[in-house]
Amino acid sequence: MRVPTSASVQVIHEEAGWLACAKPAGVCVHDAVEGADDSLAALLRGMLGADVHPVHRLDRETSGCVLFAKSSGSAAELQRCLRAPSTAKRYLAVLRGRLGEASGTWAQPMSARAGGRSNPLGRRAERVRASTAFEVLSRSPHLSLVELRLVETGRCHQIRKHAAFNRHAVIGDARYADPRHNRLVREKLGFPLMALHALELELTVGGQRRRLRAEVPESWKPLRAAFGDEWAVDRC
């Protein structure tokens, strides 16, 4: 996978103490090791010529909206804003199979640790409350385009774990999905990524309500062929 350059990192909103950008899939938010130059934080430092502080995480494989602060003080304030009950996170995913329900909530408890394909929810003794709301936007014969929202909780890999446990894994998910199905998607659709995108983040900062949106990336275009006229991304 091509590592983006600073020129290809899209800043979608910027204020005096912070900014939001659209993270490409395949890029870590944080520096994996000190001095690394391929994380999103490092790319932004190169673009802005100043230090930035990641405020929250997205998995390497997930694309979408990420917040960065321009100082440690701003980072602490934004983290408080993210924890507010009024904060809302909206995701899009393409899941394996046709979901039978038009909408619903997955509420199976799960471990706060990363899991695996055979037991996505983790050890029973470690499971804690987790809730993910979903709404099906469109269906193809073998896939579903779904909007998802984290309800009060935001556990490690929460959407990915809930989807896999409920037999509708995120396509391209190397940790939780069936590798044979992932290979089929790569070969038939030419889509080598994981189809999970952080579309919108809505929160209140400094008394002002902000709705931050990272449009679905161009890399999702191969998925359009599987849905045809049912492709609903443009209407999200």
Automatic annotation (TrEMBL):
Domain Pseudouridine synthase RsuA/RluA-like: 19-164
Family: Belongs to the pseudouridine synthase RluA family.
Protein name according to UniProt: Pseudouridine synthase RsuA/RluA-like domain-containing protein
Top-rank lineage group of the source organism: Eukaryota
InterPro entries (alphabetical): PsdUridine_synth_cat_dom_sf, PsdUridine_synth_RluA-like_CS, PsdUridine_synth_RsuA/RluA, RluA_PseudoU_synthase
Gene Ontology BP, a term: enzyme-directed rRNA pseudouridine synthesis
Lineage of origin: Eukaryota, Haptista, Haptophyta, Prymnesiophyceae, Coccolithales
GO MF annotation terms: pseudouridine synthase activity; RNA binding
Transmembrane spans: none
